[in-house]
Design brief:
With about 250 residues, this protein is of the alpha/beta class. It is built from twelve helices and five strands. It has a five-stranded parallel beta sheet. It is elongated, with a radius of gyration of 23 Å.
Length: about 250
């Protein structure tokens, strides 16, 4: 009978129940649940299983550079960051309100970690999320322009409820590339949320984008309805190197 039930669950694509049927039957028996209570228990388990699967699928297709969450961030090492603001962002209210988030600061202070952590939180809640470096984004858009398929590529990056663009300012951008980038930002403006990380202050974006007018237009659309977090602190990479050196000295002694 159990094998027949497992086969039926498989045919109905109820894989969560199929994989845990013995455990759930024991739970129902041990707790003397009625038929309706047992059925509700089964269905809730299947729903939970599907939610976990969807979250894992969303995280996989988002192309995060690593899987780091907010709980993994050392706020004590970066006291300039208001933890309450980050916790509020983790509620994902900013996505519903179509706001942007801009993380600014020197290399290594945790901008990408926090951007990724918010992205993972959004993906877990079944939001479509995509993570890409600014350099890769510019390259992809430029290649699409040369191949007369820019509009479809802009639609691709515009469809995500949350787009994370990492490392604006690390590599120079030509005026033509800046124009294409502006088109994407304009499409997402007040429609979808974008998270930006950058090591350059806004005063330098004219140099980054090769044109002050385009840079101003980009800044205007990103900053309007946004949360700006300026991180002023030491690099985590330096912290790790110091710790590694300390550990090596202990071993040597």
């Amino acid at each position: 009978m159990l094998n027949e039930t497992v086969n039926i669950l498989n045919d109905l694509s109820l894989y969560g129940l199929k994989n845990s049927i013995s455990t759930e039957i024991d739970y129902i028996t041990n707790n003397n649940l009625s038929f309706l209570e047992g059925l509700n228990h089964f269905l809730k388990k299947e729903i939970k299983y599907r939610e976990i699967n969807r979250a894992e699928a969303n995280i996989k297709v988002a192309h995060f550079p690593y899987l780091k969450e907010i709980k993994d961030f050392d706020f004590d090492y970066q006291p300039s960051i208001n933890k309450d603001v980050i916790n509020d962002l983790s509620t994902l209210r900013f996505i519903e309100e179509k706001k942007n988030v801009l993380f600014m600061g020197s290399p290594g202070v945790g901008k990408t970690h926090l951007a990724t952590a918010l992205g993972i939180e959004a993906a877990k809640k079944r939001n479509s999320v995509y993570f890409i470096s600014c350099n890769d984004l510019i390259t992809n858009l430029s290649n699409a322009f040369k191949e007369n398929r820019l509009e479809s590529k802009l639609k691709f990056y515009s469809k995500y409820k949350l787009l994370i663009i990492d490392e604006i300012g690390y590599l120079p951008i030509t005026k033509d590339e800046a124009n294409i980038f502006f088109q994407l930002i304009a499409k997402r403006y007040e429609n979808k949320s974008t998270i930006i990380t950058t090591n350059q202050p806004f005063s330098k974006w004219g140099e980054v984008f090769g044109d002050t007018t385009i840079a101003s237009a980009i800044i205007d659309r990103l900053v309007h309805h946004s949360v700006i977090i300026n991180i002023k602190g030491k690099s985590y990479r330096i912290k790790d190197l110091i710790q590694e050196d300390f550990d090596n000295q202990k071993v040597a002694n």
